[in-house]
Amino acid sequence: MVLIVSATFGAAAVLSSPELGFMRRGFDPEVAIRVSAVCFALSVVFVLALLAEWWQTGRERPRGAFGVALIVLLPAAVTLLVVHRQTAVVPWAWMAPAWLAAILSVVLLLVLVVASHPVVEAADAPVLDVATLTPGEIEELLAIREQTLRFLADRERLAPGVVEQARHVPLGQLDTLDARQ
User: Fold this and answer.
1) Less Cβ around it within 10 Å: N or C end of the chain?
2) Strands (E) located in the chain
3) Whose CA is closest to 86, among 157, 163, 29?
4) Cβ of 43: how many Cβ atoms within 10 Å?
């Protein structure tokens, strides 16, 4: 959460300074610039983490990524505009994190638009037709079901009566057990 709102805090620090921003009381300009730099440095880390996640997840376009990139870009742009219009010289090193946050946010937006593909929704699991199984496959599945039922009964996750009822349900129809009760 801190990483997401750090850009907003960075812009707020600059805007709170009477000499830099619009408030009557707030940080001194030197303190405001330093607080802003730290906040935007956190935002840079956040944007880089988003880019790394995008790369590792197969370059799929994550939901909400555009909004998150804008949450970093807009405060960085506001901060740069407010500081740029000042006559006082602000050291470039203190504004580098804001510039980097803005540039990386634009890069993230461009990457999401140009090089991403939409998230592919997972398809429903295939339905197994029990009638097509061989008797050996049916016995294997019934053995697995029996082991699972025994495990759940031993851990007291299923009542003994439910386990007994489940043993008598045909393969592939455990979902109908609730309707039978």
Assistant:
1) N
2) 60-61, 117-118
3) 29
4) 30
Radius of gyration of the chain (CA): 29
List the one residue out of 115, 106, 114, 116 whose CA is nearest residue 76. 106
Q: What is the pLDDT of residues 93-129, one digit of tens each?
A: 889 999 999 999 999 999 888 888 776 666 666 777 8
pTM of the model: 0.62
Contacts for 140 with CB less than 8 Å, ≥ 6 apart: none
Q: How, if at all, do strands 117-118 and 60-61 pair?
A: parallel
Q: What is the 3-state secondary structure (H, E, C) of 96-160?
A: HHHHHHHHHHHHHHHHHHHCCEECCCCCCCCCCCHHHCCHHHHHHHHHHHHHHHHHHHHCCCCCH
The secondary structure of 30-44 as a DSSP string is: HHHHHHHHHHHHHHH
pLDDT in tens, 58-81: 888 777 778 888 999 999 999 999
